[in-house]
Amino acid sequence: NRVEFMEFFNHVIDRFEMHKRENIEFKRELPDRKLYVWIDKDKLTQVVDNVISNAIKYSPEGGTIRFKATTNKKQLIISISDEGLGMPANTVDKIFDRFYRVDKSRTRELGGTGLGLAIAREIIDAHHGKIWAESQEGKGTTVLFTLPLMSQKRRGKK
Ligand code: ATP
Ligand code: MG
Fold first, then answer.
1. N or C end of the chain, less CB within 10 A?
2. Where is the signal peptide (predicted)?
């Protein structure tokens, strides 16, 4: 379905903001423009839910979670950053594998099955986008994904 992504994204963020711990701050840097994508809303909700849950789960007291959206000619680029414990550079790709969890002892107490991001990658692949992570140990993690933008209707010239 054709979905205006910023309205959709803001709704998902709102839902988390209502229930989040008080010592975590949300900051949005999102465009006011309408940006249309062709997506399965339920599936994208699953992706965004998992990425935000992870950011919250691994955020320290007083941490800020930043939500950004930018575009280039053809795609929308979403990024969700936290100031959590991060991970070593050689694991940022593995976290998208099924059942992979960084440092089992560290994350066991935080719960989870290690499937969330593997499912997210399948969903984003099916939408012809990409999803990846950037991280610095001890500084935080950013998860980014892209979605193809629907071409804007041209006006005037044929
Ligand atoms: P599930 O999502 O199935 O409940 P999970 O959150 O452990 O379990 P994923 O969402 O797939 O699984 O994440 C895989 C692993 O990647 C996590 O266990 C964690 O080690 C690491 N990870 C994911 N996001 C972050 C983050 N924001 N900061 C630090 N580590 C992260
Ligand atoms: Mg998860």
1. C
2. none
